[in-house]
Amino acid sequence: MDCREIYEALIVGVKDYFHKNNLNKAVIGLSGGVDSSVASFLAVKSLGSKSVTGILMPDAGTTSKENMEDAKVIAKKLKISYKIFPINDFLDSFKKTSGLKRDKYAEANAKARIRMMLLYYSANLNNALVIGTSDKSEIALGYTTKYGDNASDILVIGDLWKTEVIEMGKFLGVPHSILRKKPSAELIKGQTAEKELGASYEVLDKILRMHIEQDLSKKEIIEKGFNKKIVQNVIKRIRTNEHKRRSPVIIRVSEKSFHGMEWRMPITNRFKG
User: Fold this and answer.
1) Does some domain include residue 48?
2) Is residue 225 part of a domain?
3) Domain total for the chain?
4) What is the number of other CB atoms lying within 10 angstroms of the CB of residue 227?
């Protein structure tokens, strides 16, 4: 990967998007992980440190002290202002007032959506856009929460595989302590992405690239020596999580809308299902 070339293309793209929307401020969730760190570096390189605000949203009992400290390190290194909004009270209030059944996965997704609510609230107050931190590997696998961490105004690393994000992090000067971490959304205590996905991102990215970019079938990938179970899991995730990569489906009821404009189905994502 030519980091310099890709870096310059990303900067041009971010600047152009903000210019076309007549906005110059951004907010971004800082987790202390590689994705949010690289996205923050790119945002600051594009817009300047005074135009970017970092939002730290720890979950007491789940978010590690190390990640909180690393998030602060990134903010200070980039000279951006940051705010800390613990999310526990929001989640506790929701569980108490809703009276709904408890489920750790539903609660994990609620945490991601609470964080996105806080990001958009902050963006609204500052006439800013929300910088997303999902990478291409997470998007392909559907390893995101719908209307949670996959909701944003612009995805600056959305076309970089996780392994490429780490390469870009090295190029940008992201601290090594962050680059070597095991990725985790920290929605459930002890959870890591690779543990949940069943393989390292180095392996996952190779399979994803062969299937998506080279159009190789499951059988062809397995024949190249990859673990059958892992390959099956990856391709299954791509297919079953297609709905996470699409805009909400509009059910067409007529050829014309009341404005006389054609109804059109949302454009499908290039990831094949």
Assistant:
1) yes
2) yes
3) 2
4) 14
